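Consortium newsletter contribution from the modelling node. Members have asked for a concrete example of what our holo predictions look like. Here is one, prepared for the flavin mononucleotide complex that several groups have been discussing at recent meetings.
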Amino acid sequence: MADKPKIGLFYGSSTGAGETAANIIKEEIESSGVATVDMIIVSAQSLKAMENYQYLIFGCSTWNIGELQDDWNLKFNELDIVNFKGRKVALFGNGDQYGYSNSFVDAIGIIGVKVAELGGELVGFWPKDGFEFEFSRGSVEDVIMGLPLDHDNQPNLTRQRCVDWTHWVMEQFGLPIPTPA
Ligand SMILES: Cc1cc2nc3c(=O)[nH]c(=O)nc-3n(C[C@H](O)[C@H](O)[C@H](O)COP(=O)(O)O)c2cc1C
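And here is the predicted structure:
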């Protein structure tokens, strides 16, 4: 039997909100049997490791009013050495829609624009339904270019948001998770 496709999930999380989401996403994919997920803290190794994967999921929260979380901040410029051609990339990120309404999940936009410039194919855009905020660099028209999460204010919604989004991403990866009959 052929090996299962591998997904690289690169993330940075300062207080654990993004790590919680990453674990839910990994569990949802692996329990379906469709693919395996390597969870990697983005600052832990060379970003060249991203080239080991055709399918990538990036998780980055927003800090310091519109800036990347520390692990991503350290490595952001290193994205330039990654060949994103032919790779599909899905983004998720935590933020605080009430406390930082003018920079809600900006990290999704900062990383998304960069990956697109470098030739990666962004997937997993998500509606803004259920969120209230003024501005986000992650917005494109009426969607966000990845999954916004607000574990600070809506922790009880995190799991279902992650599960629903994971199914959408896997469909766009061409690795759909079968729905139970
Ligand atoms: C000092 C500070 C600045 C923040 N700035 C933003 C921001 O600009 N935009 C946003 O959406 N969230 C912001 N947040 C909220 C964090 O993104 C949120 O707490 C998130 O859950 C952290 O996720 P992590 O634990 O995965 O790093 C900020 C939080 C703090 C404490």
